[in-house]
Amino acid sequence: MQEKSEKELQLLGSRLRELADKSYRQNIFLFTDFLGLAEQDVFHRMEGELKGCGLRLWGGREHADRVVLRFGDPEALGYEADFPIACIHIEPLNRKFADDLSHRDFLGALMNLGIERSTLGDIVAGEKQAYLFCLEGVAEFICDNLTQVRHTQVKCRVTEDYREILQEEPEKVTVQVVSPRADGVIAKIYHLSREDSLRLFQAGKVYVDGRLCENNSRTLKAGETVNARGFGKFVFLGETGETRKGKTNVEAAVYR
């Protein structure tokens, strides 16, 4: 997908300030569209000036890559407001003759409908089907118009069953590093050279807890989520001891 330009990210910052101010002045809940990693970084960089508005990020499921930002404090307003997120189950009409469909296939089919990427959240694909998180405002349109993905005829329906179905179990891995530096851990987990790992930082493709990480020597802390764009994400679980050769064992939960 095309990266957001610097101007678009600056406009997003202005938009976030407007929504925060409006939510505070009118005592109402307000929501953004789905934010990607670069957009979440904009939010995190200005989070301090938005405090007092009541801020929460949610993508429809735990550890979502794409999330909606809500403005509004339930305690101050006296009620809770659900995020305007729907989950659509996309499945083949005839599973026996369906293609093996990837995340890219489903996203491409959705983009061909003329839908804005900002209205779409995570797509969890597997076993010739997918679960799509999207804004409620486009859910009906998608269900009515998404009828084919690649050569496979599909049907769509809004569902709430995903809460149990979509439990992505990460793979717990242990690697040996000199220290829990971000570049070293990423290199070991994704079988990269130290130079290739460094290039990810230089290209602005590494995010830690939704924040752009430009410091490749940053020490990772237990519980932090690391996204290495193009490779995946993992939760750093921490150090588990030393090897006989003096290296450090670290553990991570890797989402494939």
Polypeptide structure, described:
- With 256 residues, the chain is α+β, with helices and mostly antiparallel strands.
- It folds into 3 domains: 6-77, 2-Layer Sandwich (Ribosomal Protein S8, Chain: A, domain 1); 85-165, Alpha-Beta Plaits (2-Layer Sandwich); 171-255, RNA-binding S4 domain (Structural Genomics Hypothetical 15.5 Kd Protein In mrcA-pckA Intergenic Region, Chain A), CATH 3.10.290.
- Helices cover 30% and strands 32% of the residues.
- The protein contains 9 helices and 14 strands.
- It has helices at residues 6-26, 37-45, 47-50, 74-77, 103-111, 136-145, 162-165, 182-189, 194-202; strands spanning 30-35, 55-58, 67-71, 85-92, 120-126, 129-135, 148-149, 152-158, 171-177, 206-208, 211-212, 225-228, 232-242, 248-255.
- Strands 9-14-13-12-10-11 form a 6-stranded antiparallel β-sheet. The chain has a 5-stranded antiparallel β-sheet with strand order 5-6-4-8-7.
- α1 (6-26) crosses α2 and α8 crosses α9 (194-202).
- It is globular.
- The two termini are 20 Å apart.
Distance between the termini: 20 Å
CATH class of the largest domain: Alpha Beta
> What is the 3D form?
globular
CATH superfamily of the largest domain: RNA-binding S4 domain
Q: Give the uncertain stretches in residue-range form.
A: none
The total tally of domains equals 3
The order of strands across the largest sheet is 9-14-13-12-10-11
**What is CATH's topology name of the largest domain?**
Structural Genomics Hypothetical 15.5 Kd Protein In mrcA-pckA Intergenic Region, Chain A
What can be said about the biggest beta sheet?
Answer: 6 strands, antiparallel
Give a count of the beta strands, DSSP E runs of length 2 or more.
14
* Oligomeric grouping of the chains: single chain
Order of helices and strands: HEHHEEHEHEEHEEHEHHEEEEE
Average predicted local confidence, pLDDT: 93
Helix-strand makeup class: alpha+beta
- Helical percent range? 25-40%
Strand content: 25-35%
Compute the CA-based radius of gyration. 20 Å
In CATH terms, what is the architecture of the largest domain? Roll
What is the helix tally? Answer: 9
